[in-house]
Queue: 2 jobs
Job 1
Amino acid sequence: MRKTVLLALMLMLLLPAQGALADIPGDYRVIPGQTYRVLLGERLSTDGLTIHRIYDEYSGLSGRLDYKGSLSYGKIRWNIQEDISLPRPFGSLEEAKKWLQGNDPAKLRLPPNTVVSEEVLNEWSRSGYQATGEYWEFCPKGLVSRDLKADYSIIPRPYLLEGLTGPEDLNIKVLVDNKPVAFKKDKPYAADGSVLIPAKDIAERLGYRTSYAVYGNNVGVVTLEKGPRKVEVSVWWDFAIINGYKVRLEVPARLSINERVLVPVDLLAFMASEVKWQTEQQAGSSPSIVISIHSNR
């Protein structure tokens, strides 16, 4: 808790404010060549005149050029709100939706390729609601993300550089067993309220062997191994696999300007015996973040 508070305070000083990421149920990922949405929730406005629907959108179609000239595909938009207007006030969401089913069912249609989250399905089940107007030709009932066909002639790039603050803008020190880490080609970056550290450099200092392999659908995975401990991480994933178990990461791994894998510092808690945070402030200079790691795990 203490290190989280310290990091948050430091990044408020060093970085512009960033929106918090939603806690997404299930395992949703960008699919190359496809765009789909996940319906997270529905609610009726306080005046009873509008139904608000909240989605996350996973697009494998949007392309952009980073400043190295590489074409990058893949974008996630969090907490998109779409509104359904009602002709008069209603007292409950169920009442409003039943009226629409009988009078204007087209308004209930979900966007094409919408996956309905387990939370929404459970709420519909608890209320006895039959979603007869939501599903249609381009959004069949029971759709899950793996049902969407992907065009793998488009080889997407992972989230390259977006949201990163370069090391020239920050003062981040990393110590392993009280000795500073001399990073090689890349240095720690910051993004989305966390610090990202070059995976290979920190793994070697902690005594891990590193390897890289390409899995299905061109997903590259870095594997870090030390004794019985095995950590798998990818810039395609918003999770890591620790000894075969998925662990959700608040900030996913990224690629640096040199296209090296950067891992969030929170992942180090699974690789070392202790990770501590400390701030230093010297007169006339920007505050620094000091990350102290002990490797005897």
Job 2
Amino acid sequence: MTEPTKTSISTVVRKIVLSNIIVPIILFFLIVVGLTFVCQVTILKNQMLHKAQISSIAVQDYLDHAVKILRVYSISFLLTGQKPDVSSEEHYLVSTYFHNIVALDKNSNQTINFTLSPRDAGKTYLPYFPFQESESLYGLSTVSFIPPYYSPIAKTMVLGIMQRYGSDYVFLGEVDLRRLWRFIQFSTKPPDELFLVDNFGNYIAHKDIQKIYRQENVGDQDWFANRKPLEPFFTIGYHEGSLVFIAGRYIPVINVWAIVLTPFWNFLKPVYFAFSFLVVCCLVFAVVLKKSTQNWLAKYFILPFELFSTYVKKGLTGR
């Protein structure tokens, strides 16, 4: 019979501690980390979709006010038969929403420019694009929206709001999308990014106006190309070479998307530090537990058993 050695005791204790204590702790930690990460991503998803929703609501609210202003000046023109006088206070209010307002006499094809900027006096640009009826703004079937287009007069992307009265006049208000973006960008804060794109992915409102001038778009990026039509979406993808979380909401009244981005690593960094701290704590705990358990087993269980075995062996051999 081979006598037990201290090395064999340590090996047995190490295996017991590893299989019954350390491995379960590691598995438990991995499960907690996985569930925490999923929970954090779910919270982030709800937050980003909420930001995109706030932005889309802000866009519709902005357009509601623009329609009201266009209606006031169009009715004023119909009642007086001439361009309405605009005070400095009214000029500031109207210029907050519109780059220009134009009246078109459909009988004579004459255009009357309500230009707000003196340097643009006499300049008129009327696009001939398909437009869509609006049924959401006060139930008026006479209000239509022209999809965003580039205006050579405004030298930027604008959105057309068309107001019709009978068969005589059509009033077109050009909403400056740069001002619209400044109005809605409050819903996000750095490092989040917010912009508007049309249904083809073309930038129509962005903090970097050069993207619009260069006619850049996101239509060929997987996260945009694979979205479901008209439905909110949340995904992870690449944008301009960086990995980001992306949320988007469709704004049906003008057929555009409000897109919110947040950097993936900015979200992961605090999670990484928290999890690293937990890993260190778990490792220290496991080492301390292993040593204390090993000493306890050796002192109160294995050592008495060895002494008893040695005593029995001496009794049987008579030595």
